[in-house]
């Protein structure tokens, strides 16, 4: 497969992560272009990644094989409607915007190959995970190109149903925030137990990192890893029983249901 030329519309945080990942994988700067309304942001991204960052979205997409829509969902309709006349048949559109469906994008851009993705912020460290959905117009080569793009910042997983992007948003799109909430709560609780704040924080963060690395590397599931920490009638059992008495698992399910519902609601509100 020849190296595709990629244009990013919007050069904010997620676009910068993707551009950084592509550059680290050896994609030539000449094959990446971006556009952004902010002069400072354009200079910053151009300097960091050695790519051309222009003001005009229409200029950015000239000659591109892949157009990545990386603006906020709230401006996506305006951005797409203005961009539509500049797009060529066969250009693949990859959208990373939360709550914007393929149907809305096709209504604003015209029927074309579209891949809708939900990445997450650990993409900044190339430790992200994304769910991807391709509409019927996307070719096998374009599927591969979209997968390579998202794989530059972590793991890319295909979904057969677009509706499941809402569930991906609930699990991994918003997911980093759930772990940060647990980190905040554990640090605060450690402090209340008498630890200096810094110590409580370091104990919490290194434990989160170690547990995640163990779970990823392990050939047994999280439930078994948990059992291995939990001595009969010991300290872990005392804590886990307390979590469960408070309805921990049901609360997690309710929280993810709320995020899944909100993702679907946003798609309705921001849609065509
Ligand atoms: N943050 C997250 O956890 C996740 C975010 N996403 C999605 O990624 C997308 C980008 O998010 P993020 O990178 O955090 O947002 P940012 O605000 O950092 O980036 C968006 C960029 O687009 C620029 N922009 C605004 N209007 C236009 C326009 N008309 N044409 C071109 N560029 C424009 C903005 O400039 P200015 O600031 O000057 O307005 C900004 O630099 C969103 O759609 C979001 O839903 C997906 C998964 C997770
Ligand atoms: O909170 C949000 O709506 C976005 C989508 C996933 C992460 N942030």
UniProtKB/TrEMBL annotation:
| Keyword Transmembrane belongs to the record | no
The record's PANTHER family line, in alphabetical order, gives:
PYRROLINE-5-CARBOXYLATE REDUCTASE (PTHR11645), PYRROLINE-5-CARBOXYLATE REDUCTASE 3 (PTHR11645:SF0)
| Primary location | cytoplasm
The positions annotated for binding NADPH are: 57
In the record, the note on similarity to other proteins reads:
Belongs to the pyrroline-5-carboxylate reductase family.
User: Which SUPFAM superfamilies has this protein been placed in?
Assistant: 6-phosphogluconate dehydrogenase C-terminal domain-like, NAD(P)-binding Rossmann-fold domains
Q: Name one GO cellular component term.
A: cytoplasm
Lineage at the top is: Bacteria, Pseudomonadati, Pseudomonadota, Gammaproteobacteria, Pseudomonadales
- Which GO molecular-function terms appear in the entry? pyrroline-5-carboxylate reductase activity
Residues noted as binding NADP(+) in the record, renumbered to the chain:
9-14, 70-73
- Free-text function comment from the UniProt entry: Catalyzes the reduction of 1-pyrroline-5-carboxylate (PCA) to L-proline.
Tell me the domain of life: Bacteria
Cite the Pyrroline-5-carboxylate reductase dimerisation domain residue spans from the record: 162-266
Every Pyrroline-5-carboxylate reductase catalytic N-terminal domain range = 5-99
Matching InterPro entries, A to Z?
Answer: 6-PGluconate_DH-like_C_sf, NAD(P)-bd_dom_sf, P5C_Rdtase_cat_N, P5CR-like_CS, P5CR_dimer, Pyrroline-COOH_reductase
Keyword Ligase set for record: no
- The entry's protein name is Pyrroline-5-carboxylate reductase
Reaction it catalyzes = L-proline + NADP(+) = (S)-1-pyrroline-5-carboxylate + NADPH + 2 H(+); L-proline + NAD(+) = (S)-1-pyrroline-5-carboxylate + NADH + 2 H(+)
A single GO BP: L-proline biosynthetic process
Mind listing the UniProt keywords for this protein, alphabetically?
Answer: Amino-acid biosynthesis, Cytoplasm, NADP, Oxidoreductase, Proline biosynthesis
């Amino acid at each position: 497969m020849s190296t595709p030329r990629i244009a990013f519309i919007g050069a904010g945080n997620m676009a910068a992560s993707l551009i950084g990942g592509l550059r680290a994988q050896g994609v030539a700067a000449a094959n990446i272009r971006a556009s952004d309304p902010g002069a400072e942001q354009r200079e910053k991204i151009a300097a960091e990644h050695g790519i051309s960052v222009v003001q005009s979205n229409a200029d950015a997409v000239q000659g591109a094989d892949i157009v990545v829509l990386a603006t906020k969902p709230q401006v996506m309709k305006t951005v797409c409607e203005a961009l539509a006349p500049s797009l060529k048949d066969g250009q693949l559109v990859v959208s990373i915007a939360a709550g914007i469906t393929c149907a809305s994008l096709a209504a604003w851009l015209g029927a074309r190959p579209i891949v809708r993705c939900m990445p997450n912020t650990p993409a900044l460290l190339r430790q992200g995970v994304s769910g991807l959905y391709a509409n019927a117009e996307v070719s096998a080569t374009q599927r591969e190109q979209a997968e390579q793009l998202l794989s530059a910042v972590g793991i890319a997983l295909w979904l057969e149903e677009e509706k499941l992007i809402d569930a991906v948003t609930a699990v991994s799109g918003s997911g980093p925030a759930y772990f940060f909430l647990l980190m905040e709560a554990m640090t605060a609780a450690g402090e209340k137990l008498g630890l200096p704040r810094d110590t409580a924080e370091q104990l919490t963060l290194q434990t989160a990192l170690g547990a995640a690395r163990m779970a990823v590397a392990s050939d047994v599931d999280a439930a078994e890893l948990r059992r291995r920490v939990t001595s009969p009638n010991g300290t872990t059992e005392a804590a886990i029983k307390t979590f469960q008495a408070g309805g921990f698992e049901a609360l997690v399910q309710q929280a993810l249901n709320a995020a899944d519902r909100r993702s679907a609601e946003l798609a309705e509100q921001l849609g065509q």
